[in-house]
Specification:
The protein has 89 residues and is mainly α. The chain is 71% helix and 4% strand. The chain is built from 6 helices and 2 strands; from the N terminus they run αββααααα. Strand 1 and strand 2 form a beta hairpin. Helix 2 packs across helix 4 (51-65) and helix 3 packs across helix 4 (51-65). The radius of gyration is 12 Å and the shape is globular.
Length: 89
């Protein structure tokens, strides 16, 4: 399990800027859960944020990636070479 310090290092070294797109640390928190097949309800519970906020982060990532599906998000991160870093994060 990754601790908070390790997660911040992974974020700053590998996940803050991917293929010319900037992502916030909180977006990566949500997407890491999303990629690990967590529901929006479970993500909101794990991160102690509202379900509405989880959905807003997912929507923002979709807009940044110009994709409109869960598979599109997963495909982007798989092709970017950071998929396994994100799963570890």
């Amino acid at each position: 399990m990754t601790n908070s310090f390790e997660a911040s290092n992974i974020y700053s070294m590998k996940l803050s800027h991917i293929n010319g797109i900037n992502f916030t640390e909180r977006e990566m928190d949500v997407i890491a859960c999303f990629i690990n097949n967590r529901s929006a309800k479970k993500i909101s519970s794990l991160l102690k944020i509202s379900n509405k906020t989880v959905n807003a982060h997912i929507r923002n990532v979709k807009l940044k990636l110009l994709c409109f599906s869960k598979d599109g998000i997963i495909d982007f991160f798989e092709k970017s070479g950071v998929y396994y870093s994100l799963k570890e994060y």
